[in-house]
Predict the structure.
Amino acid sequence: MKETLHLCRNNLGELALYLNEMGYSVDAVDYAESAIELATAQAPDDADVHFLHHDIEHDSFADLPHDEYDLITLRLCYAFLHNRTWLLNRLREHLRPGGTICIITPLADAVPADRRDIALDEGEIVLATAGWATAERFDADGMVVLMLREPAAGPVSFADKRRPTPQGLIGAGVVVTDEQGRVLLGRSVRGVWELPGGKPTPSESFEQAAVRELAEETGLEASVDNAQVLAFLMDTTYDIPRLTAAVRITAHHGTPTVTEPDLFHRWEWHWPADLPALTGTLFTPSAHVLDCVWPGLLEGLPPVHRNRALQPAPHEDPVQARESHRLRQEMTDHLIEQGYINDASIEAAFRRVRRHLFLPGVPLKTVYAAADAAVTTKCDGSGRPTSTVSAPWLQAVMLREAALGAGQTALEIGSNGPNAALMQECVGPEGRVTTMDIDPFVVERSARLLPAAGYDRVRVVLGDGEHGAPGLTDEGSLDAILVTVQALDIPSAWVTPLVEGGRLVVPLRIHGYSWAVAFEKRGNELVSRAYAVCGFVPMQGAGARAEDVVVLRGGEIRLRFPEGGTADVEQLTQALEAPRLERRTGVTLPGNTPFDKLMLWLATTMDGFCRLAVDPNLDTGLVERPKGWDAAAVIRDGSLVRLLLQQTGTSTWEWVIHAYGPAAEQLAEEMTQQVTIWDRDHHIRDAPRLTIRSRLEGDTEPTGARTLVKQHTRLDFDWTRPIRTSL
């Protein structure tokens, strides 16, 4: 059954029940608890409708029953949303491919003038429908229905307004963020997004002007002590020179309010990651100011001369400083208790590095949540993270395995600030740390935040890490390399610079699974010494490569060959239409037991390994859809065999095998044997000893151990001397 998310104001359940009758499983949400209680009481007992008390603008999307929906409806509520542009971007991320967003709203022209706030005018409708490949409109009785399909957000455009008056050629653009790190923009009456700001009076500084204009335009109040000029920007408009001061206000209170309706329709909070594809036009000076705070985020900016202001040490509110110190100590204590930190220098580093200074606008509890997921700092146009700050536990594990010592030289590939600061603490004042990234946004962010946090000795480099860092490519020039982006291979630039016994810690992608593997250099080889399951954003640049994918049954089934490969579509289609062979392995495991090493075992012991996924929108039930990870599968002799878990008790699961095709019996027997051998001879934490050899050395033939040949290297997996992992 298809799922729909129904958003409503004063939800009485009529549309939700109708959608259920149409064949949808419905999650109906409303911010009013009384409306949910009434709708629940009136709904039939057998209706597949879940009425939920949920504030869609402020509560987490993770609290919703489903991650994705086929249909999302907004009935009589869109005009009441304070951050409708931001919310529409979030709803795109939770819309399944081929899904629809339906907005039902009154038209402003059809309601009395004093009730225009409950309706949308034509400008707002144009804004809502922009950024979609298909946008249909239906009008009836003063109402409009918008059907939005196929998100197609384009790059944001930049523009000036009318020819300015002479006194309007100097001004301040103000950047303020909320507790989620979202930046405030106003939708002006001219249909342009703008930052708060304006021109100073003759007696004012730019900081004073910024604070005053913020209060006059938005109702937000701030102190001049929390205002900082980042840069002075010079450009031209209508052939007239213009000067704009980029001002960052770091603390404020109040709620954004339209105080000048002759200038602005409304104020909205936006995630910075949404700005490159912002629907509508961004005022050019505002774009230049935003680029000072998030360099490289906006592409195609008009020319500007930028003069950066001298940056003083960051001002911290005493209350915030005490709270961040307390949370930082608690986080470190937790990491020690969990076994992630077992070294005095790493402990001291975590107790000293003020992580929150690298994540301005992010709540302190999120910053210092030791077991929490990574914090995203930049996304691509489709909402996928391209840059993150890793979770503290993972940073601790990678630092532990890097074994940095005082006075050593280390390189980080994949920058963002806090990890480089931790590395600098570990190597001490006599050591050297270089952090590099391919993204100008990330590099300029690190170059700005590291000195502000007290780590001006860290060298920040823009470049493709695949080729190593300038000045650090000679043999023996590095004691350790930490890679904090997911790598498909290990280029020679990561091996040659290491000293004998030097360490490389890298999130390595092997057969589609990702492990942070710690290697030690021995001669011309790298030998593994530790593994940890992890997730990182993928490598960009020369080290990025697409997987080979085979599509079956019109896209219902996708076979992924992460290390390269293919399959005969016609043969496999015929195989899937034949009766399925099912075999129980007898191998069981309790719930929440890690089994990632079993996947690595199968990938390195069975030829033709791949991963199988089923599209939930096209699922016909022919192949049982894997839960969680894609299913481990093997393609051989026109046949397919796959591994899946089936629940056999309250908290017990058994490995079961499904096989298709003429060689189904043989493949099922082989996979059963491998699962049985793993269960008998290996611990769930056993990982193979992995030796990395450069293909430049010549021989790429197996040497008795299971071998995987990549573009740069040969990987030899030796299961006879397994490594007992801590994770």
